[in-house]
Design brief:
Layout lengths: L1 H23 L3 H28 L2 H18 L6 H17 L3 H11 L4 H18 L1 H7 L6 H21 L30 H11 L3 H31 L4 H26 L4 H18 L7 H13 L5 H46 L3 H24 L9
Helix pairs in contact: 1-2, 1-4, 1-6, 1-8, 1-10, 2-3, 2-4, 2-5, 2-14, 3-4, 3-8, 5-6, 6-11, 7-11, 9-14, 10-11, 10-12, 10-14, 10-15, 11-13, 11-14, 12-14, 12-15, 14-15
Length: about 400
């Protein structure tokens, strides 16, 4: 639930974009910049939140993150200037949600599960994206008629409601409740340490080692494109884009909800395929198809049938890139550094999402249309696929095991 609320808070900026524009008269680029900053901090805080979980504990880090999210969004109810929105929904909520991001799932998995770690982490990752998209129609319903305060209040109360549950119901270690990690042999064996950075300096050191390898930059760059084409563009601007074509916010949010449902299927299937096929080939297919679909979207008739087909197709590919990216990180950076390196690769994802969240709004403000933004993003998807194909042909890389 904490992961869901954190991701849901970040996706809420897409719901309130048009209502804020109508209520305050702020331009689309200004509103988009705040969404971009929040997305960027959401990713950047992750590696350092892992260090905080090691020093003060998972529960305290969660409480701090949820408290900051609740306070910053609640305070925004009284905002009157763009910088109020930037501070509350960009800076403060970005930091707070970053402390309760995917790194939390990884920390809990490593501390509480000795076996089935991949399955549990996959479920947490998929359900976070799926859940956030599923609840968007309700938030869009609250924003009918240009209302934005009911949406903000709902998100704030959701963050606040979780605080007592975390404070009283989240043990720090399995031993605190007289048990051991799931699947652990020997009931008194201590839990294994988290695979994230224990200190900020260790996170930086892992980044320095990884940056010397071309594979890091390839994965960082392609994950940049992943964020650019999902959270940043579709997640932030699809509702507004559909509004330009006369589609009501609730119906547009329903498309995101449908994507969320099929994301669960696509991500699970991607994990199964990653265990059996070369992850580089999978990434080539995922990025190539995603890019072509984004290029095609602006030229559809925006009827119910065409948008439904797009939502299903795009939902299957929403975060299907995560399992093969993690697999390549494990193969190239080793068991010790791979989780930390993936945390930095995920920063690239959020950088791409931030670039699209701001850039698409700027393009819409300058041209009056989202068409160039979707075509450009689609082009980046195709380029990412071609770079992966070039890497596969020039570099043999570690052997990929096949059953």
């Amino acid at each position: 639930m904490a992961l869901l609320v954190s991701a849901g808070l970040r996706s809420t900026t897409g719901v309130i974009m048009v209502p804020l524009e109508l209520h305050f008269g702020w331009d689309r680029a200004t509103i988009s910049f705040t969404a971009a900053l929040g997305i960027f901090l959401y990713g950047l805080v992750g590696p350092f939140a892992a260090a905080l979980m090691q020093s003060i504990g998972i529960r305290r880090t969660m409480l701090a993150g949820l408290g900051l999210m609740a306070a910053s969004t609640f305070a925004s109810l009284w905002m009157t200037q763009p910088w109020h929105y930037l501070l509350s929904w960009g800076v403060l909520s970005g930091i707070g949600s970053g402390a309760v991001a995917s790194v939390l799932g990884a920390a809990v998995v490593n501390r509480w599960f000795a076996t089935r770690q991949g399955l549990v982490m996959g479920m947490l990752s998929a359900s976070t994206a799926t859940g956030a998209l599923i609840f968007l129609p309700f938030l869009a319903w609250l924003s009918q008629g240009g209302a934005w305060k009911p949406v903000v209040l709902t998100v704030s109360l959701a963050c606040l409601a979780l605080i007592p549950f975390v404070a009283f119901c989240v043990p720090e270690h399995p031993g605190d409740v007289g048990t051991s990690r799931h699947g652990e042999i020997g009931g008194n064996a201590p839990g294994s340490p988290m695979k994230q950075a224990a200190t900020a300096s260790l996170a930086i050191a892992a980044l320095v080692r990884a940056a010397r390898k071309p594979m890091f930059w390839l994965l960082f760059g392609t994950f940049f494109v992943c964020g650019l084409t999902t959270n940043g563009l579709v997640g932030t601007h699809l509702i507004a884009f559909c509004g330009d074509h006369g589609i009501a916010p609730v119906k547009a949010a329903g498309l995101l909800s449908l994507m969320g449902l099929f994301d669960l299927v696509g991500t699970t299937a991607s994990g199964w395929l990653t265990d059996r096929y070369d992850p580089r080939r999978l990434l080539f297919v995922y990025y190539g198809l995603r890019g072509l679909s984004l290029i095609a979207l602006p030229f559809l008739d925006f009827g119910t049938a065409s948008l439904t087909v797009f939502a299903i197709f795009y939902g299957l590919d929403w975060i299907a890139t995560v399992p093969p990216t993690v697999k390549l990180a494990n193969l190239h950076f080793g068991e010790r550094d791979a989780p930390i390196v993936f945390g930095w690769i995920a920063v690239g994802h959020q950088l791409g999402a931030a670039a699209a969240a701001f850039g698409a709004g700027l393009i819409r403000e300058a041209t009056g249309s989202y068409l160039p933004a979707f075509v450009i993003a689609g082009g980046f998807g195709v380029l990412a696929a071609l770079f992966i194909l070039a890497m596969q042909s020039r570099q043999a890389g570690p052997a990929i095991a096949h059953p």
